[in-house]
Amino acid sequence: MKAARFDYERPENIAAALSALGRGGSKPLSGGQSLGPMLNLRLARPPLLVDVGRLPELRRVEERADGILFGAGITHAEFEDGAVPDPTPGFLARIARGIAYRAVRNRGTMGGSLAHADPAADWPATLATLGAIVHLIAPTGQREMSVRDFIVGAFETALAPDEIVAGIFIPRCTPQARFGYRKSCRKVGEFAEAMCAVLADPARGVHRLVIGATEARQIVVDDAADAIRNPDILEDVMREAGLAADPASLRLRRAVIRQAIAALEDESLPA
User: What are the entry keywords (predicted)?
Assistant: First the structure.
C-alpha cells in the first residue's frame, strides 16, 4: 500500500512553516521515520506535509551554563557521532547508538521522536529521566513544558494543532552523574517490550527513575533513591499503573528495572 495523495511544501523559515501548518489537517515532516510508514499504511492521511527538517531555527544548538538547548531537527546520528555537544557524561550518545538502525538514525530526529510519543521509543523515557524541557512554538508565541507533562498518553502529546516542537533543553549533569538504561527487544531495531532509565546525580540532588514501553505514558519516579536501593518497592507503582495484570510482562519489567539500576555505580547513591 502507498500513501494517499498529499501536497508537499518546504518553507524557508519557521514563520512560513507555521503559516502552512495553520491549514486544517496539515502535518509537519522532519525525519519521517515514523510518519512515513504511517502514510504508507494510510493510518495518517494529511492533505499537506510541511517539511521542517532543515529549518535553521530547528537545527540550532545553544549552550547555556545550566544545560544545552537542542533544535528539534538534530538527528539521532548527530548525537551518536558527537557532532553536537553533550550536557551529560556521554549519556545521549549511548542512547542514540541503540535506536533502531543507522539508516533510521541518519534521518530520525529527537524532536520528531517526542512529537510522535511512541511509548516504546528511547528518547521520551530518556529525556523524562534527564528532566528535559520541551520548547514549543506557534503563531501566537512560544511556551515550555517538561517532557513528562508533554507526553500525555500513548502517541498523545500536549501539542496544540498549530504548534510544533522547536527544541529540547537538557539540563547539565555533573561529571559524577551516573545513568542506567535497559530495554528488552526481541531483536535489534524492534520496539521495546520493557524499558527503564535511571539517573543518579547526587551533587544536584537528583535520583530519578522512569519506566517506559507502557501502554500509556511513561511512569516517572522523581525521588527514586529508595527504589534504586530496593527495586521491590516499585511493584506497587507498577500495579497502580496497571502494569501487573500479565505475570510474564511483570517479570520482564521487573528484570529490566533491576538491570537498569545495576548499571549505576554504587558511589552514585547518597550515603
Answer: FAD, Flavoprotein, Oxidoreductase
Alpha helices in 101-152 (DSSP H): 102-107, 110-116, 122-130, 147-150
Sign of CA dihedral 180, 186, 187, 193: negative
Distance (Å, whole) CA 212 – CA 126: 9
C-alpha 27/C-alpha 40 separation (Å) is: 15
Rounded Cα distance, 10 and 171, in Å? 32
- For the structural domain made of 179-266, what CATH number should be given? 3.30.390
pTM of the model: 0.92
Report residue 253 CA to chain centroid gap: 19
Q: Are 172 and 68 in contact (CB under 8 A)?
A: yes
User: Which neighbouring-strand residues pair with 220?
Assistant: 210
Overall residue count recorded for the chain in this entry: 271
Q: 73-93: per-residue pLDDT in tens? A: 999 999 999 999 999 999 999
Q: What are phi and psi of 162, to 5 degrees?
A: -105, 15
Residue-wise pLDDT for 160-208, tens only, equals 888 999 999 999 999 999 999 999 988 776 778 999 999 999 999 999 9
The CATH number corresponding to 58-171 among 3.40.50.300, 3.30.420.10, 3.40.50.970, 3.30.465.10 equals: 3.30.465.10
